[in-house]
Amino acid sequence: MQKFQVNPQKFRMRTAVSLLFLLLLGALFMPGSAAAQTKSFYWERFDVDITLLENGDMQIVETQVLNFSGAPFTFGYGTILTGSAGNNDNITNLELREGDLLYKESSSNTPGTFEVSRSSNEVRIDWYFEPALGQHTYTFSYTVEGGVIVGTLDEGSGDQIFWKAIPSDHPGRIQNSTVTIRLPEGVEPQRYTDDGTYLVEGLAAGNSNLVATEVSGDGRILTYTLLEPLLPGQAFEVRVQFPHGILDIATPRWQARQQNADVYGLIGLVLSGLLFIGGPLTIVALWYTRGRDPETGLIVPEYLPEPPSNLRPAVVGTLVDEKADMRDIISTLVDLAQRGYLSISENKAKNHVFTLENSSRAGLRPYEAQFLTDVFGSTTERKLSDLRYKFANKLPRLRTMLYDELISEGLVDRSPDKVRTTYAVVSALIFVVAVIAFIGLVAILPEEAAYVGCCGAAALGITALFAGVLGRYMPNKTAKGAEEKAKWDAFRTYLKNIETYENLEQAGALFEKYLPYATAFGLDQSWIRKFSGVPHAPIPRWYVPYGYGPYYGRPTTSGGSGAGTPALPSLDSAASGMAGGLESMSAGLTRMLNSTASTMRSTPPSTSSSSGGFSGGFSGGSSGGGGSRGFG
């Protein structure tokens, strides 16, 4: 036999999934024996003989010489992976010998018998023998169908045997091992060049230097010899490549599935990549083309000192942030009070009372008329506490009417709320499709390409996330709406920084006039705070803190002041009551609308534990075979 060298860097193999051939020999400890605690074994020899048949099947014979010590060993078991997991189509013709004793296939579990059971990707062997100590030799033989990796006629390609003769998870030391591959007549390994080395390789523990490799003169017999003991955790695998087409070997079923899986995987990864990039980009493009307000070219000053149009505060608040939230509802209450439709007073119990001052609905917008109906019903007076838990179900209709108001004013084409809802539904549907796609693709694709289902589902999931997030910003305005927003933003700047533009001592009248807009903009608390220290700033005529009598056009007297003297308190004299009262009124109404159990800040605390507030809402390959060995 001639010696040869291997150049593994030039080894060409077809791409294959890493596979494992597993043969596990188990152990049964005899109970009641102290020696059972010291049982041990090792392999004196572990030889594997592989004969390649002309049809591509491999006849494998394993000769294992074991040395048992301690208590006797009585049975063993093992598994051999099949299909893509083991790089073979099937394991057949299983035989087991111990010397001259041929084990019989039986389910009796008696010494000298073995039993074979099969599943979709595994063959299991259980065998039983007389109690064994010392040296014993077991010989396994079986046929591997479809165990050759079939190449092509391309230069550098070829058919190959790539077999893990001894797996890494054997539980004992293997002192010596020889693996032999016998090729059919007329078949010899490929060479790198005409006078170069053969395309063969032997690896022990991942190192070719631990294996001596020889080839016979005619090239048909290859021998791989272990140069030092193989320890647990170390594998011994062999490989040989020969020209494609010399033998009429059909592509194994597992390899065909793997090749199809590679195609499916490539297509799936490309489509997933396109979806991963294209899906979010499509959502972003929709926002860019449909979600942004149109450019108007209007030049607006930094601030505007008065309302730029006759839009009511709640409509302005809804236009600016495209949301009909609680501060818009509260601004409607303040606006209607300022216009004389209702008044707000505080009684001795620190409860606010709403009184209907004008029952006519003439000149009111639909949402304003509905608001008065929701608050008062058929009465003319309503305590704020009476609305607790009874107003929240009115909010959806009021919000819808505010969105309809934007449409009727030509400020938007579609209800912002419906736009957000549409994209939320689209996001949910895409997510459902992602889940269905994941389940469906994993079910129909080959096992090796099942990861495509994960990639596709992940790409759809990212798209769903983008649709859900950007959908909140998809509502947009018409050109008129965009111009109105720009102007009202300038007016908001004026209200927010009014002390910069006005002398507050001379602008006290602006407090009540612009309070509804400050409420719609979420500036009500800072607005009250700024004017609370201004001397003689009049308190709104529609608000009566506790301790002051009604003065809506009806002169009243304060004790000791003399008849006919109007009792009109200034804002600074009622600042604490006004600031606390209005803030509590706003927060309390929101708490009530959210069905909380807390009361307004000016009333005794509630017994509820919850609270609320006003907010704005072989080119590479893997070996077959493998497994583990053990006895007990």
Q: How would you summarize this macromolecular structure in one to three sentences?
A:
The protein is an alpha+beta fold and 632 residues long. It has helices spanning 253-291, 313-321, 326-338, 366-376, 395-408, 416-444, 451-470, 479-496, 498-501, 510-520, 524-532, 575-593, and strands spanning 2-3, 40-52, 58-81, 90-98, 101-102, 104-105, 113-119, 122-145, 159-166, 178-182, 200-204, 211-215, 221-226, 236-242, 342-346, 352-356, 381-383, 543-544, 624-625.
Q: How would you sum up this structure, described in words?
A:
Helix 2 (313-321) runs antiparallel to helix 3, helix 2 crosses helix 5 and helix 6 (416-444) packs antiparallel against helix 7 (451-470). The strands form three sheets. Strands 1, 2, 3, 4, 5, 6, 7, 8, 10, 12 and 13 form an eleven-stranded mixed β-sheet that branches. The protein has a four-stranded mixed β-sheet with strand order 11-14-9-19, with no helix packed on it. It has a four-stranded mixed β-sheet with strand order 17-16-15-18, with helices on one face. The longest helix is centred in the middle third of the chain and has 39 residues, at 253-291. The chain has twelve helices and 19 strands. With 632 residues, the chain is an alpha+beta fold.
